[in-house]
Amino acid sequence: MLQSYLPALVFLVLGGAIGGAFTLLNGVLGPRRPNPVKNEPYECGLPSEVKRSFRFGISFYLIAMLFILFDIEVIFLYPIAVQLKAFGVFALVETLVFIFLLLVAFVFVWRRGALEWK
Amino acid sequence: MILPLADVPAPHIDYKGLSPLIALVGGTVLVLMAALLRGRFVQRSLLPLLTLGTLGAAMGLSIWVWSPGDHRPIVESALEVDALALSLSLVFYVAGIATVLLAHRSAALSDAGAGEYYTLLLSSVTGMVLLAEAANLITLFVGIELLSIPLYVLCASQVRRRASLEAGLKYLVIGSVGSATLLYGLALIYGAAGTTSFAGIDRALGDTVSLSDPLLLTGIALACAGLAFKASVAPFHQWTPDVYQGAPTPVTAFMAVATKAAAFAIFLRLFDSALLSAQFQWAPALAALATITIVVGNVGAIAQDSLKRMLAWSGVAQAGYILAGVVVGTQKGLEATVFYLLVYLLMNVAAFAVVIARERVSEWGDGMRALEGLGRAAPWLAWPMTIAMLALAGFPATAGFIGKFYLIDAAVDGDYAWLGVVIVAGSMISLVYYLRVVAVMWMGPMEVRLPSLPGRPRTAKPVGGWSPEADAWAQPEVTLVAVACAAATMFFGIWPNPLFDLVADVGTSLASLVG
Amino acid sequence: MTSTWGWLILLFPLVGTVVISLGYKVLPGRLAGWLGSAAILGAFVCAIGALLSIQDRTPEDRQVVSTLWTYASTAKVDVGMTILVDPLSVLMALVVSGVSFLIHVYSVSYMGGDRGYARYFAYLNFFVFSMLLLVMGGNLVLLIVGWAFVGAASYLLISFWYRRGTATYAGLKAFVINVVGDIGLVVAAFLLWSKTGALDWTGVFRGSHEAFHTNDGVIVAACLLLTVGAFAKSAQVPLHTWLPDAMEGPTPVSALIHAATMVTAGVYLIARTHPLYELAPTAADITAVLATFTFVYAATCAMAITDLKRIIAYSTISQIGYMVVGVALFGYANGLFHLMTHAFFKALLFMGAGSIIAAMAGEQNIDRMGGLRRAMPFTYVTFMVGSLALAGFPPFSGWLSKDSIVAFAFDRGGWYVAIGVAGYVAALLTAFYTFRVVFRVFSGEPVEEARLLERGELAHAAHRNPLTGEEEDTDVGFPGPEHHIAERELPMKFAMSLLAVLAFAGGTIGIPDVSDVLERFLEPTFADSAFQGVAPSDTAEWIGLAVGAATAAAGIGAAWLVYLRRPGLSLELARRFPRTHRFLERRWYFDELYDLTVVRPLQALAAFSRRAIERGIVQGLLVGGAGGLVRGGMTIARTIQNGYLRAYALLLLTGLAGLGLYFLLQSS
Q1: Which of C547, C572, C597 is at the close of a domain?
Q2: Are residues C554 and C649 in the same domain?
Q3: Same domain, yes or no, for C245 and C149?
Q4: Residue C514 has pLDDT above 70, yes or no
Q5: Residue B136 DSSP SS3
Q6: Domain shared by B324 and B414, yes or no
Q7: Contact: B285, C654; criterion CB under 8 Å
Q8: Residue-level pLDDT at B134
Q9: What is the DSSP letter of C259?
């Protein structure tokens, strides 16, 4: 049974070996003449302007996260919307419960001031 | 692709059986909304009362639902209620109630906000109940995530303490790895068996699916590892001491008892019911894990100076003992496991309650020295701790002894006598660190440092049960939890029959083991 | 009704323990002592109640089993909180509670000046409760619980003055040796349970008659294990070395636990499990032979050592040897008769010793005593009564009880006659060493302390440990100077005179031909015995008694010759035979033997493992000895447990890979 995995193993070993070999050869054979410009992070040809003190506002993450959360939840509504007739009243009630819970969360987030930009 | 528009029947739902869960979810929403109200009364009193009310209601409903020897679906092929689920739900509720009481004066409460704290706690309990009632792989996973994610946050809820944040992050990372592993395993099991329902897997195994199917076995291996994370079974235990120490102590207490019980609930459901036909394949591996866990946990606990870390390691060791009940895959094993989880709740909560009471007032925090001379200074705390330690070590006349005896008996009965020997050997080692705590409390010096000018410490001998810095009844709810749990530990050590009756009922709940 | 009395017997000391331990801070003065005494008196009254109610029943109906609740009925283990009230347990309860009551009363005064007064009585009540639980328990589990509890109480009381190094060491020693016995008992219980499926007495006895034939390997093994348990508790060779050291405890404790009650638990155990021993005569014979050796051995030791309490301790070992012989030869009533009379006169002797030691300001060496007769007339008279009873001088109680055992040995015939002969030899030695003490302590030139006492003053000495000469830490109390003498304390006088009467007249319930009260009373318990009704003829018994009386007189006479008539003779003898003297004084080198064969090798092993592991494995990281392996593992665990997630991830992957590999190998 295990033998059927042999090709996969050979593939893994070969892939690793060849990839590793080239990286290694590069490091060993390639010339190394560093200068400040070469050492800079690649920045589309423009001089890099990112300073170490740069920060994103924490509010950005919060808003983004909340957006993604609520956005994704909506996806759950699609399948039901498509097949509502087949599922019947039960699914409708379920959907309402679902939306109600989302609403509770939304009210909480809103009242807690998480949506205000500080 | 267009789906056929045939009528899809709504699943049959037994609302009576579902009522504890409905109560929990409703309570969670209520607490969350109430948290928006400002005012000291709401934040300090109403929220905990609402939480306690919710847990109490859920508990009452669970008992109402209970009818001995009964197991029936509550949501067709998703949730099922039986004595196993209900008895473990009781563990979750009691642990939740204890946590609410213990957290009443916790710094985490004001740091994170009382509403959020209680809401997260309630959602975690909901996840656990869901998990215990799960009847298929999907609900299992939903339950495990619902219980884990709030715990990640709760661990970090003392946001002003670095250790708490670190614990939260660590738990998040490791816990996610565990969940991912588990999910992968479940997916492979589904792939092999072609069904997600436990009963279906049980039927498929050995019938349409070969027991040596590599897909199935890899699935079992991954699921096993994933659950081992949650139950802190070695070698997947390493997050335990760090997270237990870093997390706010009430949360630690909750994790130590409730999460463990939940993880074992699913161990029982998955391995002793759905995968029982493959017992020959998984049992030796689990037995090896149990052995490693017992050794690693007990050895690790010896050198600890922090009580929380010591209890974490001891929890690892205890997980090993409990795992023995799963390994044997017999009715008695099931009974022993549930019995031990019930008494484990009592003794561990008692120990953590004392740690909480001490770390709030002692300059040594949760260090071993915080207990020095406690026997004289605060007998109301020293006795529960003593009882808890003796029970954890398995002393006769405590519930811990009967629990361990039950487990060993189950191991011997299930042809894993050597595992019983390992449990005994582990208990021997464990005496070193459990008795050390007792010794520190009763034999430590009785001096207590009085508040004074820096550089000029004054000490005094406490007189007659009173000490200037540690009056046990200054935090009545914590002492109450400690005393109640310790008393119950003693009570069930001397009069274990109610628990015997209960687990005898639980023993019939997994159809695969009966007969 | 009978069972109610039985439960009440247990209830009183339990309540006493709880009340005294909870109220130790608020109980004023000697109230704790009186409370404790009252509790034991209650138990004694209930024991009398049980006696009367059991005598009201028909003889066939005198074994009453009562279950308070069922403790566990799982896994084929059916254990309840069950007591068995039958003549044997009632007799034991009477002796235990009666003697305990008197010793409590004695202690009320004797311990009056001690710091740990309430603690002492809490322990003492706990001991009585445990001992009563042991004798009344209706199944093996309760017996083991009681067995362990009395062991714990004994440990607590030996180490009562816990700032004293020798006392804590002695406590440890007693504990360790008793654990050996506990293991024997537990394993025996397991063997019996696995073969008979029962743990309660009647079930075990009935089951073993079905499961075993005579001298079956398993039953012999079980009985030998029971013997190990009995010997450890009853301080029989080779498990006797803890008892002399146990004399570090307060003197009333020595009287109660290490003379009158606890140490006789082994005798009770053999009598209780007599149906098993009768199925395994080989085990009974081995027990009897070892006990014979014990009583001779201990009597020889008692002749040479000089510590007052230790002499009485060796005489205890010796007398218990007689009792064990009695029950192991299946003459149960004889063994229990001696158990009872011994409880009286030995408790009395210890009480007298306590009084003497108090008068001597803590001094225990009899070579430094002398002439106390005039200073302590009351102590002298009572001590004399106890000594005459111990020596087996007619008509004192010890004469009747000891000789009933010896006569029974002769009656068994065969090689048992040798045991009987040894019994007389040891009786001679007993009479000799007993009166050695009497003459040394009370006769001769009065010592300084005796003169002081005659003038009405009590000697006081520096607080020094008589064994090591160390300065005592008196924080938790101290033996000797703070204690009281019988002459001045009414409660002590009361207890001692009552015991003196019992030691004198206690034998009347077993006079051959005249009153066989005890034997007839015990009959229902031993009705199933094949040896029930077997007894030497009255003529034989009286001949035996006459020989016994002559032996005692000879022993006393020899002591009189050596210690009174020619006072220098003993020293000269010691000088003439230095090796023999040293051999006896060092108690046949048993302690040294154990040190050499058990303690030293273990220490060497620990030292070796420490060196090896420190140098070889962890390079001085550890300080462990015997637990080096555990500590080594601990260090490794801590190294891995370094708090870095990446390290955890590595181990985690290793574990996962291991698990995966295992399951994949299953598939091929």
Answers
A1: C572
A2: no
A3: yes
A4: no
A5: strand
A6: yes
A7: no
A8: 92
A9: I
User: Of B282, B294, B271, B496, which Cα lies nearest the Cα of B406?
Assistant: B496
pLDDT tens, residue by residue, B199-256: 899 889 878 888 888 889 999 999 999 999 889 998 888 889 989 999 999 999 999 9
Q: Can you give the residue range of the structural domain that contains B184?
A: 15-274
Query: Do C416 and C410 touch, CB atoms closer than 8 A?
Result: yes
Is C473 part of a structural domain of the chain?
no
Cα–Cα distance for residue pair C303/C430, rounded to 1 Å:
8
Pick the residue from chain C with its C-alpha nearest to B170: C645
Taking an 8 Å cut-off on Cβ atoms, the answer to whether B299 and C633 are in contact is: yes
Both C500 and C357 in one domain: the answer is: yes
**C426 compared with B463, residue with greater pLDDT:** C426
Residues B137 and B214 in one domain: yes
Domain boundary among C545, C572, C599: C572
How many independent structural domains does chain B possess? Answer: 2
* Total tally of structural domains belonging to chain C: 2
Cis check: omega of the bond before C512, within 30 degrees of 0? no
Q: Which chain A residues are Cβ-neighbours of C668 within 8 angstroms?
A: 1-2
Computed over every residue of chain B, the mean pLDDT equals 86
Size of interface B-C (CB pairs under 8 A): 99
B510 and B364 in a common domain:
yes
Q: Check residue C65 and report its DSSP letter.
A: E
Same domain, B87 and B128: yes
Q: Is B214 on the interface with A (CB under 8 A)?
A: yes
Determine the average pLDDT of the residues in C537-544. Answer: 82
Nearest-by-CA chain C residue for B217? C663
**Domain check: are C596 and C552 in the same one?**
no
Label residue C473 by pLDDT band (50, 70, 90). low
Quote the mean pLDDT of chain A. Answer: 81
Task: Name the pTM for this structure.
Answer: 0.63
Look at residue B50 in the predicted model and tell me its pLDDT. Answer: 94
Contacts of C69 in chain B (CB under 8 A): 495, 497
pLDDT band at C72 (very low <50, low <70, confident <90, very high): low
The whole-angstrom separation of Cα B386 and Cα B465 is: 16
- Given a contact cutoff of 8 angstroms between Cβ atoms, the answer to whether B270 and B358 are in contact is no
Give dist(CA A76, CA A78) in Å, integer.
6
On whether any CB of chain A is under 8 Å from the CB of C462, the answer is: no
Range of the domain at C635: 589-667
Give the model's pLDDT for residue B461.
47
